[in-house]
Amino acid sequence: MKMVFRWFGNENDTVSLKDIKQIPGVEGIVWALHDIPVGEVWPMDKINGIKKLATQYNLHLDVVESVNVHEDIKLGLPTREKYINNYKKTIENLSKVGVKVICYNFMPVFDWIRTDLNKELEDGSTALFYEKSMLENRDPNDLVKKIADNPNFTMPGWEPDRLNSITELFQAYNQVSVADLWGNLKYFLQEIIPCAEEHNIKMAIHPDDPPWSVFGLPRIITSQENIRRLLHLVDNPYNCVTLCSGALGVDPNNNIPSMINEFSDRIAFAHIRNIKMYENGDFIETSHRSHDGSLNINAIVKAYHDNNFVGYTRPDHGRHIWDETCRPGYGLYDRALGIMYLWGIWDTLKLLKE
Ligand code: DNO
Fold first, then answer.
1. pLDDT tens digits for 131-171?
2. How far is CA 314 from CA 44, 131, 268, 308, 346, in A?
3. Ligand 1 centre and the CA of 155: distance in Å?
4. Cα–Cα dist 214/138, whole Å
5. Ligand 1 pocket: which of 7, 110, 111 to mutate (most atoms <8 Å of CB)?
6. In the CATH hierarchy, which fold is given to the domain comprising 2-353?
7. Measuring from each residue's beta carbon to the nearest atom of ligand 1, which residues come in under 6 Å?
8. Is the pTM of this model over 0.85?
């Protein structure tokens, strides 16, 4: 298990590289060029700029999250060729600074979705919350209107231009079935994976969060069966997955340790976090501790340990604690606590094996 920590860059993050360096066992940052519009080639000067910053703190930059996929690729439009070529060029550029894993997702229009970024937990901390009734059976136009009325609407971790042409995108996806989306993903992977292999970079798709359809849009990376299908679309060791315990774990049918046992050699990147699920389908993000949420994080870490997992791991979102002001879900304190919990389990398991 190689521990890494997501960092949004000097301009976009309250957490500094100096802070990250002081978290026990963190060897690298998980980064992206957040100001490059989706679909454009990531330029070498900016990539080298991040390398220079990380190197000052002796942190590696092996993992990128995310190189986002242009909607024209997901929609399967003829213009996808241009964006696929740009994607390949970005892979090549990233290989020049030694990047080993690219995390990406194939969720139409949106990335991860929550309804409240600061819901109070019993202990007075706040966390990301999903209220099912606010999204189920809702007209996407309500959301479109909310975004239109709110020029600064953003979701942390999303590239802002995702929302620029939301009305047109909803119309375009009316023509795209679940089967079409699988076909478009296959086309993309058939193009990209040989390039990734040539440059020794693993492509690690992030599951859909939450793992079900929202606003009638298709979502496909949602279950063990579908991850199996994804890995077979292009059966190559460079076609991998980012196994996100929180994204998949909110569906009680998903058994994360079972997925780790089945896919461990194709999990290039592990996101580990806990969530608390309520009977009505709502969920909230909690501390990483098993006791605090619905997922058994001990069993998840044990499954990685049993499988001699050597991939990259990051604590995923954290709560906002100790009055920290930060990007929602991406503060320093709770994610650092999460890391210590993960190491505690891992190191104990290691000791028991000796
Ligand atoms: C949320 C993240 C996601 C993830 C993308 C990967 O905090 O886990 O935004 O980065 O889905 O492409």
1. 888 777 767 667 666 666 766 565 655 666 666 677 788 88
2. 26, 26, 12, 17, 13
3. 11
4. 9
5. 111
6. TIM Barrel (3.20.20)
7. 65-66, 103-105, 111-112, 157, 206, 317, 329
8. yes
